[in-house]
Amino acid sequence: MTRGRPELHPMRSPHDFEVIRDPLWNTIRLDATALRIIDTPEFQRLRHIRQLGLAYLVYPGATHTRFDHALGVCHLARQALALLGERGDLEGGPRGLPLHPLCGAPPRHRPLPLFPCSGRAERPAASGDARSAHRALPAADGIRRALESVAPDAPARVEDLVRGRSASPLQGLVSGSLDLDKIEYLRRDAMFCGVPYGEVDADRLIHAFALVPDPATGKVEIGIHEKGLSALESLLFPCSSPAWCGMHWTPT
Which domain holds residue 97? Predict the structure, then answer.
């Protein structure tokens, strides 16, 4: 819902989809579930939050928003899940939903209140607590309803993924050293700031994703095929580059 307008597409068919042209990824396809989430007031407000805050005063092109970034993360998630599914690594894995940018804060702004937070240590919900899915999204009723259309426990499962406490082998795509949020913002920030660093080889990196067992624990997690090591280096280098840190923390 946008201000002054009725709710966007309140009832979408499961077969609905939209195609969006993006300056970074070219074509982004959004299915009905993603569209229901994007149509919510919580998601629409991302249009008004600049990804890099006041950095546009130094880098005039850096006017891109959290909305743009969220669509990009959704695109990468769909691509990664499709490739893992083709190799038989997935059976009924989660959809590529553009939720992580709602609660993962970029360097220059506060996170949105998608999940409850406080200054106190979080108390884990009791196992099997039927109310946990409803408590998970107190400030995002539209998003909760969109997730529940996929599965009744989807809000709680998504919250666990975002908080980094999920038992899913795909946890690493949302929170970890290989998370898609990081891959997307490195590429997008570099493009809109007009800088030559941050050019992650995202396509090759995602094609190298694999589900592998941890030698120490036996837990299946997201890993990288050995043929993708060079692409992995392209992800690790910008994160440690002084020039990259200078761009994100430029005094304004």
Answer: 17-110+139-248
pLDDT tens across 95-149, in order? 555 555 554 444 444 444 444 433 333 333 333 433 343 344 434 788 888 888 8
On whether the CB atoms of residues 185 and 65 are closer than 8 A, the answer is no
CATH code for the domain of 228: 1.10.3210.10
In this structure, is residue 183 part of a structural domain?
yes
| Tally of domains within the chain | 1
Q: Does the predicted model carry a pTM greater than 0.90?
A: no
Cα dist. 112→73, 82, 86 in Å?
17, 29, 35
* Residue 147 in domain: yes
Amino acid identity for residue 201 in this structure:
D
Residues 87 and 91: their CA atoms lie apart, in Å, by 11
150: its two tokens: 């996929």
By C-alpha distance, which of 96, 35, 38 is closest to 67?
38
Residues linked to residue 100 through DSSP beta bridges, in sequence order? none
- pLDDT per position as a tens digit, 31-89: 988 998 999 988 999 999 999 999 999 999 999 999 999 999 999 999 999 999 888 87
Q: Please report, for residues 73, 101, 182, 199, 225, the alpha-carbon distance to residue 66 in angstroms, rounded to integers and kept in the order given.
A: 10, 7, 13, 19, 31
Tokens of 160: 């666990």
